[in-house]
Every structure is written in structure tokens, then in C-alpha cells.
Write a structure and sequence with these properties.
single chain, 99 residues, mainly alpha, elongated
Length: 99
């Protein structure tokens, strides 16, 4: 057979190839899921989320005051940011005291 001749496979052979590919894909997915569920991976995701929140939290009082000054009610701010209303009021009081 030369390099120019097409390879002919039967339907059964093609089905076996596809089934083998699916099994390899599923095993790879299972391995990735197992790695994603390790304590170390969860800790790394938690650490990243905590660092991101700390960066946001630092500027949060200014943002809350800016939103309030733009006409937002503390209840609206709390809902949008998934905070308690009392937290918003407390941060606004702290912000105003520092100004």
C-alpha cells in the first residue's frame, strides 16, 4: 500500500476506535476530577479567593460611600454585594468617621 492510498476501515473498526477514544477521555476526566478534589487543590482555590477578597475589601468602604452618595440605599448595596445590611451600615459609619 502506498502513502497515497486511502485507509479503509469497517464500521465495526471505526466504532471500536471511537469507543476507545471515549474510554480514554472518560479516564482523563476522572483523573482531572480526582486531582481537583484533593485537599491541596481546594486549599489553593480558597487561598486565591481569600486574596482576591482582601484586595476588594480594602477599597470596599470607599465604594460603599460612593454608591451611597450616588443615591443607592444600604439595602440595595447589601443585596448587590451579598452582604448584610448591618455590615454596610457599619462600614459606612467607619468610613465617615475616618473622613
Amino acid at each position: 500500500m502506498s502513502a497515497q492510498e486511502p485507509v479503509i476501515v469497517t464500521a465495526d473498526e471505526l466504532a471500536q476506535e471511537v469507543a476507545a477514544l471515549v474510554r480514554r477521555f472518560e479516564r482523563g476526566q476522572e483523573q482531572q476530577q480526582a486531582l481537583a478534589d484533593t485537599a491541596e487543590a481546594r486549599m489553593m482555590r480558597a487561598a486565591k479567593a481569600r486574596k482576591e477578597w482582601k484586595a476588594v475589601e480594602e477599597g470596599l468602604p470607599d465604594l460603599l460611600a460612593e454608591a451611597r452618595d450616588a443615591g443607592w440605599q444600604p439595602k440595595q448595596i447589601a443585596k448587590i454585594l451579598d452582604l448584610t445590611e448591618s455590615y454596610v451600615y457599619r462600614k459606612l459609619r467607619e468610613h465617615d468617621a475616618q473622613q
